[in-house]
Amino acid sequence: MISLKEKLIMKTLYHKFNNQLPQLETEISYKRGNRYLFFVFYTLQATSDKLVSYDLIKNGNEFIFTFEVGKDKHHLKLETKENYKSYYFVSINDDLDVNEFVQIEPKLINE
């Protein structure tokens, strides 16, 4: 099985060379039988603006992740029936460096 780190590096390179940056995606990682959900943002520049705010809302089987970088707003809606042990936000620049790595707690609605 390919490691999460290798997958993130390969996807960063793919997005970079196919001019598809910035890009917001999800990745799932497994460790000792536990599932972890990562919201991954591939940035356009190595010297990007600082993360202003981010939010994760869980409504039943739906996750809504939003964040702002400078004046740009990004959001991702994901529907899943899987349970995850932890949730993370990761920001990776086009030099393959991690800008942000933050564990986030979802705000629960209608649970």
Unreliable runs, pLDDT <50, ≥5 residues?
A: none
Span from first to last CA? Answer: 33 Å
Strand content: over 45%
* Secondary structure: helix percent: 10-25%
Give the number of domains: 1
Count helical runs.
1
Cα-based radius of gyration, to the nearest Å? 14 Å
* Strand runs, count: 8
Strand order within the widest sheet? 1-2-6-7
List the helices and strands in order. Answer: HEEEEEEEE
**Major sheet details:** 4 strands, mixed
User: What is the SS-derived class?
Assistant: mainly beta
Cα shape: globular
Mean pLDDT: 86
Write up this protein.
The strands form two sheets. This protein has a four-stranded mixed sheet with strand order 1-2-6-7. Strands 5-4-3-8 form a four-stranded mixed sheet, with no helix packed on it. It has one domain. Helix content is 13%, strand content 54%. It is mainly beta and 111 residues long. It contains one helix and eight strands. It is globular, with a radius of gyration of 14 Å.
List keywords for this structure.
111 residues, mainly beta, four-stranded mixed β-sheet
List strands and helices in order, with pairings.
Blueprint lengths: L3 H14 L5 E9 L2 E9 L8 E9 L2 E8 L2 E8 L6 E7 L5 E7 L2 E3 L2
Task: Report a brief summary of the structure.
This protein has 111 residues and is mainly β.
